[in-house]
Write a structure and sequence with these properties.
heterodimer, A: mainly beta, 16-stranded antiparallel β-barrel, 19 strands, about 10% helix, about 55% strand, globular, B: about 140 residues, alpha/beta, D-Maltodextrin-Binding Protein, domain 2, Porin_dom_sf (chain A), signal (chain A), Phosphate-selective porin O and P (chain A), PBP domain-containing protein (chain B)
Chain lengths: ~400, ~140
Amino acid sequence: MRTRLSIAVMLAWMTPSAAPALEFVEGKLQVHGFASQAVVKSTDNYYFGNSPETSFDFTEIGLNASYQKTPNLLFSGQLLVRRAGEMYDGTPSLDYGLVDFSPLSDAEKRLGVRLGRIKNPFGLYNETRDVPFTRPSIFLPQAIYYDKIRNALLSFDGIMFYGDRYLEQGNLSLNLGVGQSVIDNNVEWTYLGDDLDGDLRAEGINWGIGSLWFSTPSDSLKLGLSAILTEMDFNAGPESPLSSGTIDVFDWVASFQYNAADWTISAEYSRAPTRWNDFGPYWPFKDQVVEGYYLQGAYRLRPNLEIMSRYEEGFANRKDRDGRDFSDLTGGTTPRFDFFSKILTLGLRWDINPNIMFRLEFQRHDGTYALSIRENPDPGDLVREWDVFAASVSVRF
Amino acid sequence: MISRRSVRNILKGLVAAALCCATPYVSPQELIANRDAGVESLTRNEARLYFTMRLKNWPNGTLVKVFVLPDNNPLHIRFSNEVLGLYPYQLRRVWDRQIFSGTGQAPTTVSSEQEMLERVAKTPGAIGYADGPIDHSNIRLLEVR
């Protein structure tokens, strides 16, 4: 574990102060990448690994290439290696891989289409959620971007149409996509509470996404509305206590951001009506409306030194914010505080140069809804009030 | 009531005004392009679209090649604040979103103003910026309307 951190520090040291991206074919082919290592210590509960004992199991490495063949034809792809406690073991995956064709593009508008594996333009951060440099903090606001269920939101295989309109008053941007979601075991753990016999998967076209953004010409104000509609199929195996069934989710988020010279204020509000169909008598939940929101401020003491603070709340069911009803449904085996999370975050970001970044972070948690069940399988071990200390070093080119 | 901050701003303004009047000539940062781009002026909005890499072709169809200095370079900071009306961190955010979501590219970062001039001069469709007036047969100064 120690060696991994020292490798990251060595990497940081070795990166020249202004490492240029790799470019080929007259600059039409670009290669970019990043690597990041975090260390996480918590007072209780497993958060990105064995954090009560200090975890080094939060590593992110990405390598991408893009080829701008002509002004309206772009090919791009990214490989991602991500280790995140028990949730992700570092197996390389295709993060995105697409062809982007924009036949209409001028100073007033742009119309285009993307085909392939596409990142979901959901909220302010989802598209680049695994790139530490683009996140507001080491941990994303979990109340909206749950890492325990990251794959349910991450990307989809399909087609997306997009349109931009550039006006004197600002820019409008619309994305509409359909396809198939990329589901993994974490999604099953989160929605069904266990890794059951049988599998949760996407059947046919099960994914629709739309997002609409407005920003003022200088990008000082940014407003957005994004929504996802999906259905997942569970095919029960012979050993499964649950019958085969489907899960319907409609997840939407409203986003706000204001950018000034020295500070940025961001806020998002999200709701996800979720329904479980036909899972049989042993499944206690029928439907719920997941809810989450946060308010976040960042202040740049110097252009390369930023402090941030955020307060967020997330609930498994907005009609049962204290978790009383859901806890009763489980016969009290799952405590009430496992159905909400209230998190205060304080963070420091220092960009030593444009290619190396250090971060420090402190979180005070009330509730355990943000935790992965996969990492914390026994509800009896959960502790309601817990703190997290984290640090990370990230490099890019 | 005047806050401490506004007093500071007034003082800053006075100092800036004094400096401006005391200096006979302050060289402005200029938007420059390769002669092949075939344009003589841009609106501020067009300049933003080119530098955020959302508009990738010149009116004549040529592919745009954007050159910038590192994020912490003083000329880069002045150019993005004063000509584009964007803070450097906003430009970085747009580029990062594009390169790390596969929806676009980032400009080519050059290491010095000298390299900027050389690259813009020899790359068809190139756009960049320079400090003060320059005289190069392959580079055209673009007026920002």
